[in-house]
Write a structure and sequence with these properties.
48% of the residues lie in helices and 11% in strands. The chain has 743 residues and is of the alpha/beta class.
């Protein structure tokens, strides 16, 4: 055999040992070459009489296998390229390709010889599926990072190498469903208790234990190949019991996904159908559903954005090249309110000594108490030892003294959105900062170039926009001012990576990228309300469209007083009389007449309980709003969904045209992580490129503009892209790659 990704030998007892070790990579993945090697190994084990059994293991300290190579899979996802082949020929070709690993693992499982696997680290996705096809699994019990799981659903796919068939047959349908539908990972101990793993052993002994089992069990079979086998839980093949489980699961799935995620729907169907037939038929069913799922545009969008782009940006793909990496030995946070306190916590959690400055010692101490509460909660839940918690808190120094800022590599200012206050703090901090230190301002709307006028060194001045709550939100928006240097941008990216968050890079503009585009969702919800659409319909359709909250609830969270202020300011800048418009009158009434300013006051569009949780939509809305639409048939739901999502995507296009954002990856990841744009679409750009198609999107935006107003009207960029047949990833590709010019 000529193997490229495995090492192979046969010991004196006739036990073959195949060591998975992809050259040049820190982690094994199932590339096309790896699959070819597994096919060759299976053939050799099955046909070589000198081989009495097989043990699989990994040559990587990181683990056995992280699953399929998603770079390769992403290229194949989302629909086939144009071809002259017939539909039947194409389907056969797709099935044969999709079934290659699945069929091979079944051949390995039924080769008549015992097969065991030694798992020293993680086994995810296809890696776990390979392990499940072995007769015996030994896992390391001394590796705290070891994890197992089938996470394919998180990126729009379903397990395609036996996972939907073998895991339910091992642990039962009811136990397997959440693991596969939600992509949950589990530890070696959990795997042992469920029966996914047969034995636990120290890492150094896993291979020897696996070999010993192979030697002692020459006639091993998979449980489902034994006569009289029944699925755990008492559900035999062709039993109506699985139907009851599937019915309940289907109801729960619909309530959480609203039918937006094809992978979850297909997983449920695949398990329900496959568990009622022998496993060979079940594996063929799985492959058909796998291909169906893989060919959906949602799969391509989610693989590209939620895995490939997120991974690239989380490694600094948008960092300017040619600058040395910065190690942050000290960072100052000025402003110990909710945002500043959260920033101080994530810095300390990343091991960065942090100075937390405020105008009074009481305020600074209160800011540190935020970290104390988070640490105490983690310690009480066993997520953090008291010693590590104490060490984390010791890194935060609350103070009023700006001299404590001296020596900081970076300052993050996080005070109120007031230009005068920010200017005063800039000058106070720069008086003690070194020449190379970076000054970052955390602002969501104020232009960076204007704020930088207060700085003596605008080249070192940059926007670093966090999202609340800081400790839970994974994105940071970095904003270049007109004079921000590339060296400063490189340091800012290094900082975001150091605190283990994902950076996107944008250029200066009022509202930048995320706040500006996010605002269109709430604005459209308010437009619908002013049109007389029942509030509950607006909220339900927003969630069903894929947004994390309804538009009115989001507005409550931002603050109705803030929304009124922004609406008036925007209208004034554009010469529009907001106060006489139906929307302006409604907002003035609810804020100024009724004093309902949102969640912070416990009353806005919703009423809130004492814990600040949403209670109900405020019944008093009906006093001001004449409800003209109180039912939502499918056609109206589709119309409202398009209004919600298209409106946001049109604003994203305007940001590209104005140069606010320049990389489609940043736009997609920013839209998902910052404001929760429907994740199944892959983000705003992928929504246009893959879910609609550029020409169809422009036509729909024009239709909506004709019916509802020019806020939907496609800009020149979109029309030019449609004329050329270009998507956003063609016109604005990742940094370092060339733009494609479509015909």
């Amino acid at each position: 055999m000529n193997l490229e990704t495995f090492k192979f030998d046969i010991d004196a007892d006739g036990i073959a040992h195949a060591i998975f070790d992809v050259p040049g990579r820190s982690m094994n993945t199932l590339t096309g070459k790896a699959v070819a090697d597994i096919i060759a190994i299976t053939r050799e084990v099955a046909t070589n009489d000198a081989i009495k059994g097989l043990v699989l293991s990994s040559g990587k300290a990181s683990g056995f296998c992280a699953g399929a190579d998603l770079g390769e899979m992403g290229d194949r996802a989302g629909g086939a390229e144009k071809t002259k082949k017939s539909v039947d020929e194409l389907k056969k070709e797709q099935f044969d390709a999709g079934f290659s690993l699945n069929g091979t693992l079944r051949k390995l499982e039924t080769c008549g010889k015992p097969v065991a696997v030694a798992l020293n680290g993680l086994a995810l996705g296809g890696g776990l599926e390979v392990a499940l096809a072995c007769h015996y699994r030994v896992a390391a019990n001394d590796n705290p990072k070891l994890q197992f799981g089938l996470p394919e659903a998180k990126i729009g796919l379903l397990p395609g190498a036996g996972g939907t068939q073998r895991l339910p047959r091992l642990v039962g349908v009811q136990a397997a469903l959440p693991l596969i539908l939600q992509g949950e990972s589990f530890s070696a101990e959990q795997a042992k208790s469920m029966g996914v793993v047969n034995e636990l052993a120290p890492s150094s002994e896993t291979v020897a234990r696996a070999k010993a089992w192979v030697k002692a069990n020459p006639k091993a079979k998979a449980p489902w190949d034994e006569k009289g086998y029944k699925v755990p839980g008492g559900v035999p093949h062709k039993s109506p019991g699985v139907g009851q489980v599937a019915t309940m699961a289907n109801m729960m799935l619909a309530s959480k996904t609203y039918g937006n995620f094809p992978a979850q729907k297909n997983i449920l169907s695949c398990i329900y159908e496959g568990i009622q037939v022998p496993i060979d038929a079940g594996l063929r069913i799985e492959t058909r559903y796998f291909i169906n799922t893989q060919q959906r545009p949602e799969a391509k969008a989610m693989i590209r954005s939620l895995f490939l782009s997120t991974q690239a940006l989380s490694k600094g793909a948008n960092r300017p090249a040619g600058y040395p990496q910065t190690e942050f030995k000290k960072v100052a946070v000025i402003g110990a309110g909710l945002m500043g306190a959260g920033i101080a916590y994530v810095q300390a959690k990343a091991g960065i000594p942090t100075v937390l400055v405020d105008v009074t010692q009481e305020a600074a101490d209160k800011g540190k108490q935020y970290s104390v509460r988070l640490v105490e909660k983690d310690v009480s839940r066993g997520k953090l030892s008291k010693e590590k918690g104490d060490a984390l808190l010791a890194l935060i120094t609350p103070t009023t003294d700006y001299n404590a800022v001296k020596g900081a590599d970076l300052v993050v200012e996080a005070v109120f959105e007031d230009e005068g206050l920010k200017a005063k703090i800039t000058q106070a901090a720069e008086a003690v900062l070194g020449d190379d230190a970076v000054y970052g301002t955390n602002t969501s709307t104020l232009p960076i170039t204007g704020l930088a006028k207060a700085s003596k060194r605008p080249a070192n001045f940059i926007g670093i926009h966090f999202f609340s709550p800081v400790e839970r939100m994974g994105l940071v928006e970095i904003i270049n001012g007109k004079e921000t240097s590339e060296a400063t941008l490189a340091k800012a990216v290094d900082y975001v990576l150091a605190i283990r968050k994902t950076p996107i890079v944008v250029n200066d503009s009022r509202g930048f990228y995320t706040s500006r585009c996010f605002g269109t969702y709430t604005q459209e919800g308010l437009e619908m309300l002013s049109e007389g659409i029942k509030p509950a319909i607006i909220e339900n359709v927003g969630r069903q469209a894929g947004m994390p909250m309804g538009a009115l609830e989001v507005t409550d969270s931002v603050g109705l007083d803030t929304a009124l202020k922004v609406g008036r300011a925007t209208a004034k800048a554009t010469g529009f009389d907001y106060n006489e418009a139906p929307l302006g009158k409604m907002m003035a009434w609810i804020v100024e007449d009724k004093g309902r300013v949102g969640r912070k006051a416990g009353k806005g569009f919703y009423d809130y309980n004492e814990q600040g949780k949403r209670d109900r939509l405020w019944p008093g809305l009906n006093d001001q709003i004449e409800v003209k639409i109180d039912e939502c048939p499918p056609a109206l739901k589709k119309e409202l969904t398009n209004r919600i999502l298209v409106r946001q995507a049109v604003e994203v296009a305007r940001c590209f045209e104005e140069g606010v954002i320049t990389d489609a990856r940043d736009a997609d990841i920013g839209s998902i992580l910052a404001w929760g744009f429907a994740p199944f679409t892959g983000g705003c750009c992928s929504y246009v490129d893959l879910i609609w198609g550029i020409r169809e999107f422009v036509a729909e935006a024009d239709r909506l503009a004709d019916k509802y107003g020019d806020r939907f009207r496609p800009n020149k960029l979109l029309r030019d892209m449609a004329a050329r047949g270009e998507g956003f990833y063609d016109r604005f590709p990742p940094a370092g790659t060339k733009a494609k010019v479509a015909a």
